Amino acid sequence: MRVFRPIITYVLLIITAIIVFFPLVYAFFISFMSGSELLQGKFIPESFHLDNYKKAFERLPLAHYLWNSFFISTVVMLGQLLVSALAAFAFVFIPFKGRNIVFFIFISTMMIPWEATMIPNFITIQQLDWINSYQGLTIPFFAIAFGTFLLRQHFLTIPKELKEASDIAGLRSFKFFWKVVIPYSRTSFVTLGAYGFLTTWNMYLWPLLVTNNDDVRPVQIGLKQLQTQEMATDWGVVMAGVIIVIIPTLILLFLGQKQLQKGLAQGALK
Amino acid sequence: MKNATAFQEKTLTQIDTKWRFVHWRSAILYLLPSMILFSVFLFYPLGKTLYLSFFLTDQQGVANVFVGWENYQYILQAESFHKSIKATLLFVLYTVPTGILISLFLALLANEKLKGVGFFRTIYSSTMGVSVAASAVVWLFIFHPSMGILNQLIASVGGTSIDWLLHPDWALVSVAVTTIWMNIGFSFLIILGGLQNVDEHLYESAKISGAGYFYQLRRITIPMLSPTLFFVVTVSLINAFQTFGQVDILTQGGPSESTNLIVYSIYREAFVNYQFGTASAQSIFLFLCILIVTILQFKFGERKVHYQ
To answer: Where does the ABC transmembrane type-1 domain lie (chain B) (predicted)?
Structure first.
C-alpha cells in the first residue's frame, strides 16, 4: 500500500488536472483555427498563426477596452486599499466610543447583496451624470468590509509597543499609519490588492449597466460584443478574444497564488 | 493635601475627556471614507429599493403611484417569478454541494507531499483567474450543438447529440456545470489553505496508532477543516444566488425561462421592461433570501463547526 499511494495520487492529480484545465486549452487551440478547420471538427490546429488575434483587434477597439479594464482595476484596487486600511487602522489603534457598533455596521454590509441595490445605484449614477465615466465604474466599489477585516487581522499582529513608542516620540497617528503600519503589513496589502484587481477586472453586470459606448467600456463587455457579433461566423476570433482577456489575470494569479491562498484563508478563518 | 488630590483628579479627568474627544475625532476621520461610501452606495440604495418596491415608477425610475403591497402580490402570483425561484433553488442545489465536494477532493490531492505538486495547485486554482464572461464564452462553444466537443464526443461513440443550451431540462444543468468549473479555483484555494493549517502532530499520533487514510480523513481532517468548509459553503451559496454573467451569455434566461435565475430576472424586469417597482420587490426578496441563508448558516452551521 505504501508504494502504491503516491502512484495513485499522481494518476488522480494528472487526470483531474487535465479535466480542469481542458476548457482553457480548448479555447487556446480554437483561437488558432480557421472556420473550415472548426467545421471539420478538429481539436488541434494545423498551424499556430495569429490571424484570429489580428482580426479580433480589428473588429473591436480591444486595445482601448484592455486599457480601460486595466485603468479601472488599478484605480479600484488602490481605492480599496486606502479606504480599507484607514478603517482597519481606526478599529485597531484608536480606542473610541461606539467602536463595537461601528464594527457591527461593517459586518452587516456583507449581508447586503450588491445586486439588491443595483437599481437605485444605477439611478444615482445617472443623476450624477456618471454613465460612461470612470467614476461610475470605480468609486462605488472603494469601500469593502472584507478588505477592512483582512487588514484589521494583520494590524492586530503589530506589537502594541510600536504604537506606544510612536506616541512617546510624538508621532502623529497618521504618520504612524503611513510610516509604520503600512510597511509592516505589506503582505496583506498585496493579497487584498490582487483580490481587488482580479474581481474588478472580471466585473460584468455593473459595466453592462453603466456603459453604453466605447469610451470607458471594459474588455469583459467587449468580449460579449465580440461573441454576439462573430458567433455564427468566426469562433476562432471569439476565442482569440477570450485568450487576450484572460492572460493578464492568469499571470497575476500565477504570480500571487501563494500570497492569495494564505491571505484569503486568514480572512476566512479569523 | 486634600485640595491637591482633588486638583489632580480634576485635571486627569480633563485630560481624559480631552483624549477621548481627540480619539473620537480621529476615528471619525479614518472611518469617514468607508462610512460615506457605504451610506451612498449600499444603505441608501437598500432603503430606496424598499421604497420603490411599494410604487409604480416611470421609465426614469421616478416613483409615481403608491401601490402598497401590490408589487409583492403581483410577483408572488406571477408564474414567471415562480419559475425564477424554482430555477434559482435548483441551481443552488446543483452547484453548491458538487462544487465543494470537487474542490475538497482536489485540495486533498494537492495537499499530499509529493514532488511537483505545486504545478497541480496552479492548474486547479487557474479558473479563479478566468472571468465570468470568458468562462461563459468558452463553455458556450463546448456546448455548441454541432461543433462543440461534448456533442462531438457523443457522436463519436454513436450517441444522439444533446441540445445542451436549447432544451429546458438541460439548460440549467449546463449553466450549473459552467458555474461549478468557474468556482473551483476559489474554493480550492480556500480549502487548501485550511488543510495546510491543520496541525501536523494530529496526523503523527494517528499514524502511530495505525489509523488508515479514510479514518484520518473522517476523524481529523474534516472536523479540523469545518470552519473553512463552513466559510466556503456560505460564500458559494451567496454566489449562487447572485449568478448573472453566465446566464446572460449562455442562455439569456431561456429556453422557456428555465434558466431565468433571480438576478437575471431582476435585471430584465428593471432594465429591459423598465418595471422598477416589481424589480425592486424582487430585489427585496433576493435580499431576504440571502439574509435568511446567512442567519441560518450562523445559527446552525456554527454549532457543528469545530474550532481549533
So the answer is: 85-297
Assembly ipTM: 0.88
CB-based contact A24 B44, cutoff 8 Å:
no
- Residues of chain A below pLDDT 50: 270
B189 and B123 assigned to the same domain: yes
Q: Domain of B289: which CATH number?
A: 1.10.3720.10
Q: Do B49 and A119 touch (CB under 8 A)?
A: yes
Smallest CA–CA distance from B239 into chain A, residue: A113
Residues B34 and B129 in one domain: no
Residue A111 with chain B: CB contacts under 8 Å: 290-291, 294
- Looking at chain B, the whole-number percentage of residues with pLDDT higher than 70 is 93
Q: What are the C-alpha distances in Å from A226 to residues A27, A144, A196, B133?
A: 15, 32, 26, 11
Report pLDDT for A267. Answer: 59
Model confidence at B13, pLDDT cuts 50, 70, 90, reads low
- Cβ atoms of B178 and B139 within 8 Å: the answer is yes
Confidence band for B1, pLDDT divided at 50, 70 and 90: very low
Specify the pLDDT at position B14.
67
Residue of B nearest to A172 (CA): B26
| Domain interval for residue B13 | 2-52
* Residue B58 located in a structural domain: no
**How many residues make up chain B in this entry?**
308
Who among A12, A198, A265 is closest to B109 (CB)? Answer: A12
Look at A9 and B112 and tell me if their CB atoms are within 8 Å.
Answer: yes
Q: How far apart are CA A85 and CA B258, in angstroms?
A: 44
Does the residue B69 lie in any domain?
no
Q: Is B66 exposed, middle or buried (0-12, 13-18, 19+ CB in 10 A)?
A: exposed
A143 at B interface, C-beta within 8 A: yes
Q: Which helix (H) or strand (E) holds B213?
A: helix B213-216
Same domain membership, residue B97 and residue B15:
no
Indicate yes or no: CB of B192 within 8 angstroms of CB of A261.
yes
Q: Which three cell numbers stand for residue A245?
A: 482577456
**What integer pLDDT is reported at residue B7 of this predicted model?**
57
- Is B243 touching A (CB cutoff 8 A)? no
**Per-residue model confidence (pLDDT) at position B308:** 45
Domains of chain A: residue spans and CATH: 62-269 (1.10.3720.10)
**Residue B26 confidence (pLDDT) above 90:** no
pLDDT interval class at B216 (50, 70, 90): confident
Per the listing, cell 486554482 goes with B125
DSSP symbols for B134-178: HHHHHHHHHT-TTTSHHHHHHHHTTPPP--TTTSHHHHHHHHHHH
The pLDDT value recorded for residue A234 is 85
